[in-house]
Amino acid sequence: MPPSYASEKAELLDVIAPRHSLLSGRYKQSFAYIALQSRMPGIMSQVTKTLLLNQSYLEKLHGTNLDKEIHIIIESIERLRKELRRDREFLLFHGNESDKPEWNAFISELPRPKRSYFRASWLHSECYLYRRIHSFFESSKYLRDFDYFADLKRDDLIISARAINCLTMATRGLSKNYECFSRLMRINLWSNHFDIQLAAFVFDSPEDNKNIDVLAKVADLDRRILVDESLQVWNCLLKAKGQKEIIVDYICDNSGFELFTDLLFVEYLIDQELATQVRLHVKAIPWYISDAMKSDVEWTISYLKDNKDEHVSSLGKKLERLMKSEHILVAPPSYFWTGPQSYFVMVDSNIELYKMLTQAQLAIFKGDLNYRKLLGDYIWDFTEEFITCLRGFRPTNMCAMRNVKCEVICGLPEGVADHLLKVDPNWMISGYYGVIQYTDSFKCKCDAQQSLCSLNNKA
Q1: Whole-angstrom Cα distance, residue 281 to residue 440?
Q2: Positive or negative, the Cα torsion across 306, 311, 316, 320?
Q3: What is the pairing mode between strands 434-439 and 362-366?
Q4: CATH fold for domain 3-147
Q5: Disulfide: which of 30, 162, 324, 382 matches 417 by Cβ 3.0-4.6 Å?
Q6: Which element (helix H / strand E) includes 435?
Q7: How confident is the model at residue 422 (pLDDT cuts 50, 70, 90)?
Q8: Which residues of 410-430 are buried (b: 16+ CB within 10 A; e: fewer)?
């Protein structure tokens, strides 16, 4: 290794991530560094533990002794953990990965100094680690389809029983108006925290748990929403009134209780004829511990359908009917959602997915990871406009709903970030603040291919 490269590679700075830089573990006072240094090794240990705990079940399922395969996977995970701690370079994929060509091309095109765990963009490092973990299972004969995060995702829904019952009751028979729409949208935004608060809340009246106004107040929603452009989202959907086909693309985030609130929101869109079809975009492989897959959608609806509470069971049966009639459907799996690329390169790297999004009246991007990919894991000025930070990625009208969990954010009113830094220094990583941001599409009147080329040039 040339001395100049060795010294450059070792350069980790004990500072916060500066403005106008990529979020990276290179900056030791950033959340990216903490996550790579502490959180990712813990997740690898969790995968190993889950594999061992499920060994007997897997052997019964496959009717074979899996000791050798499990041993190989655990050894591979341990080797990956050591590579991370030593800030080694990303390796090319040589297994049975369906997206191997795309990943290898991406890694090969990265500049060498930005190809190691702590010096790369945090987005690149984190996605690479999750992708590498699953590659170990893909090389297995019997464990290719084993979801090592499934138990955690399902437990998250099961322990939220009270919140599920309350929200199911409160969302029956909602009117078609902005007030109901916005409350449901905000509850959906806070679903990562809302179930905990709801489970601990003592209602003044037994009827309060059936009242969406009361439920919205439980989570103290308004105080912590830094940007709320839900009215623009509402108006966007109203503009499509009368169209034969109104498609909403819903790019999902977490499974568990959050997916349940996603389905409540989607149900409302269909019931109120704000959409004729909602396409759920989920992950093709286990991802970021809790991200939703097709199997999670199916399991969640089955869990609701079989629930002892008649209202919850009725909801599950209704969702099953909506799935069968394709008013709600799971979009064809795309490995782009588990790739390392920011979304503004979609028009170049996955034209078919981009074309699919252009068919929709609205695309809703849920969660922190989707937000980071929309903004490219780049630390913009707090007040930079959302539309600017998308860097030309505007296949359709777009909404981003996200709890703030890292230093990537934009579109804030002047002075808000300065105030938050004074009263809550950890506001960017706590998850206690959120945004609902919106931008209109940018579509020209020429044919689709010319439009895509034009957008590509502008990006």
Answers
A1: 20
A2: positive
A3: unpaired
A4: Transcription Elongation Factor S-II; Chain A (1.20.930)
A5: 382
A6: strand 434-439
A7: very high
A8: bbbeeeebeebeeeeeebbee
Q: What's the pLDDT tens digit per position in 207-222? A: 666 666 666 665 555 6
Rounded to the nearest integer, the mean pLDDT of the chain is 90
Q: Nearest-CA neighbor of 390 among 439, 451, 445, 324?
A: 439
Residue with tokens 């506001």: 427
- Please name the amino acid found at residue 361: Q
Q: What does the DSSP assignment read for 94-108?
A: -SS-TTHHHHHHHHH
In the CATH hierarchy, which top-level class contains the domain 154-458?
Answer: alpha beta
> CA 34, CA 28: separation in Å to the nearest integer?
7
Taking 3-state DSSP, the helix, strand and coil percentages for the chain, each rounded to the nearest 5, stand at: 55, 10, 35
**What is the 3 state secondary structure string of 198-249?**
HHHCCCCCHHHHHCHHHHHHHCCCHHHEEEECHHHHHHHHHHCCCCCCCEEE
CA 104, 107, 112, 116 torsion-angle sign: negative
At 151, which helix (H) or strand (E)? Answer: helix 150-158
Amino acid at 429: I
Among 75-89, 177-191, 445-459, name the one with the lowest average pLDDT. 445-459
- What strand order describes the sheet that includes 225-228? 225-228, 434-439, 398-403, 362-366, 247-251, 277-281, 328-330
The answer to whether 17 and 123 are in contact (CB under 8 A) is no
The amino acid present at 342, given as its one-letter code, is S
User: Does residue 385 contact residue 410 with C-beta atoms inside 8 Å?
Assistant: yes
Measured between its terminal Cα atoms, the distance across the chain in Å is: 36
283 dihedral zone (left: phi>0; alpha: psi -120 to 50; beta): beta
Domain borders along the chain are: 3-147, 154-458
Q: Contact, 459 vs 392, CB < 8 A? A: yes
